[in-house]
Amino acid sequence: MKYKALVIDVDGTITHMDRKLSLEAAEKLRSLDIPVVIATGNVLCYAKAVAKLVGVCCNIIAENGGVIVDGFDNEPIVSDVIHECEEAFEFLSTKYDMEKLDSVHRKTEIVLRSNFDIDEAKELLKDRFPGVEIIDTHFAIHIKSRKINKGTGLLKMAELMGLQTSDFVAIGDSVNDLEMLEEAGFAVAVGNADDFLKDIADYVSEATYGDGTAEAIDFLLSKGLI
Prior knowledge:
It is built from eight helices and twelve strands. It is of the alpha/beta class. The protein has two domains: 5-78 and 148-223, HAD superfamily/HAD-like (Rossmann fold); 81-145, Hypothetical Protein Ta0175, Chain: A, domain 2.
């Protein structure tokens, strides 16, 4: 099967460990003859800058599926889920000294500095806020709605592009990429990915971070998959 599009995470997937962009991964992505969708837990303005700089503008899944846009100047689709996340944050703030990140730009979730006991916080939220979850992407802590993720974001993006999710190759490295890889037709985990992501992947690169993405693209091209 030849896949019609590619959806890819940013931090830890097209960057190096220090979050610097892998120029090799960027070059290979922009050279592809199929659309490339940026899918990130970060905010939309960051994702737009990434897409522009990489040269794959501008189909974007931001805030872990909470914000979706299919063109640089188009109006984004924003999920109405921030209120339950704010309530969960206010509750946890009575237990921990928590620091918000990017709060001015966040529309659908809350991102926190990793300076508290995440496992304990998950237990505290489990019964009181069952519709909310906390995830650790290795770069930040996210309080997000269980209703949305990069998988639901991919479903909407595929619809906007006139494709099926099975038409996509997905590449990622962390817990917030799980549903996206499960939803796609072909799943790739880079070498630094969490083990549970590697377990469901169709291909796991030997190289890590952006070098792993470059290796994966070479593999996909060599097999005629894209």
